[in-house]
């Protein structure tokens, strides 16, 4: 009992994987009626797309010794039109499809085609005929349905159906999305990762965005996608700390920085040798944008420092004198407009 059930189930499963099946009528009718009959009871009148299909069809039909034979689904509307298959407008005709001396358009309105299934050398060949003549109908039933393939197009073949998958999908029924290598937070450090998975985890069209923490910069793409072949569109980016331009120790001074590299958040302290005075900040920090918080200081000996102060003082005094003199000269110039040359020479000698 159990075995019978399994056997029955097995047969029905096998049948669902078959491609199209052929059927034929027991009565004759004109081409239009034959097609109508096929469309009512099955999918449509047969369409042949290769010599192999042609031969297979003939092998499935009962032999007939003479006309009428079977209508097939190729036709034309006018004398000068190309023979066209119903359904998808294909114009396939094999090298050996027509019987000898056919199509002859004997009655000048032979716009339909029958297939010979006799035992002569013409077996399996085609003949153009008047569409009003009565012949048997031969039809096919499609096995493909809208649910045959999930993410693809169903293609029928003899004894089989095949799903032609959309890019990014695979499987007998195109039911699985292509997968990319798993990518989670263990693959990316130093920042934040935000992934979306519209179809499946780490699958076709999954997208990850990357952002680095403050003070580090992203090297690589900030957005990668799982492509239709199961590859990420780019490698995972990395975050590297922002670097500040290297600092060197000041003349007659020392430099000590936290950490080895002079990168974001590093603070560097400056000290001067004994007998020297620091001119400027005693420490600077590397900022978010890779710029030190201030300029490097200088170390000056006390003597230099004093001289510097003195020099500064002297410079101030000189500047003051200069300024006063110029102001004075300007006033003089205004009062001597009539003798400019004399004024100039006097200024030079003065
Ligand atoms: C076939 O051709 C006819 C007439 O040119 C057109 O109406 C029809 O849509 C076509 N069918 C297909 C499946 O391309
Ligand atoms: C027409 O349909 C048949 C059967 O589905 C297929 O094999 C053939 O490639 C199609 N031809 C064209 C031109 O689309
Ligand atoms: C053309 O048709 C006539 C009768 O309608 C028939 O006698 C003749 O044999 C046909 N010729 C061919 C080549 O089929
Ligand atoms: C039909 O005729 C062919 C060719 O003579 C032969 O091979 C085949 O067995 C016949 N089929 C039937 C069902 O009689
Ligand atoms: C086919 O037969 C039907 C019914 O017998 C008829 O109405 C129709 O005109 C015929 N068509 C052709 C092209 O002969
Ligand atoms: C289709 O399947 C039938 C039965 O299994 C077999 O006899 C036939 O040769 C097959 N045809 C092709 C073209 O594979
Ligand atoms: C159907 O066709 C597919 C692809 O061409 C092939 O892999 C598969 O084995 C075929 N199945 C049968 C039952 O012939
Ligand atoms: C992420 O890391 C795991 C384990 O370390 C590895 O197997 C996987 O391939 C990595 N993913 C990518 C996209 O490199
Ligand atoms: C990340 O991926 C690795 C393998 O690629 C896996 O072993 C690990 O459990 C995953 N971690 C999380 C949190 O999903
Ligand atoms: C991740 O990205 C999605 C879409 O771009 C957005 O809506 C969401 O807020 C983001 N989540 C985080 C934690 O950034
Ligand atoms: C995958 O993404 C592309 C581009 O963003 C889009 O055109 C396509 O429709 C998506 N495919 C699926 C199956 O969602
Ligand atoms: C930078 O330094 C501040 C204060 O020392 C600390 O709070 C912060 O976490 C540090 N940031 C990084 C990225 O090291």
From TrEMBL:
Residues covered by the EGF-like domain: 140-175
GO cellular component annotations of the record: plasma membrane
Pfam families: Lectin_C (PF00059), Sushi (PF00084)
Signal sequence segment: 1-19
Topological type in the membrane: Single-pass type I membrane protein
Stretches assigned to the C-type lectin domain: 17-140
Transcription in keyword set: no
CDD domains linked to this entry: CCP
GO terms for biological process, alphabetical: cell adhesion
Transmembrane intervals: 305-326
Keywords: Calcium, Cell adhesion, Cell membrane, Disulfide bond, EGF-like domain, Glycoprotein, Lectin, Membrane, Metal-binding, Repeat, Signal, Sushi, Transmembrane, Transmembrane helix
Annotated function: Cell-surface glycoprotein having a role in immunoadhesion. Mediates in the adhesion of blood neutrophils in cytokine-activated endothelium through interaction with SELPLG/PSGL1. May have a role in capillary morphogenesis.
Subunit structure: Interacts with SELPLG/PSGL1 and PODXL2 through the sialyl Lewis X epitope. SELPLG sulfation appears not to be required for this interaction.
PANTHER family, A to Z: COMPLEMENT COMPONENT-RELATED SUSHI DOMAIN-CONTAINING (PTHR19325), E-SELECTIN (PTHR19325:SF493)
Full protein name: E-selectin
Protein source organism: Amphiprion ocellaris
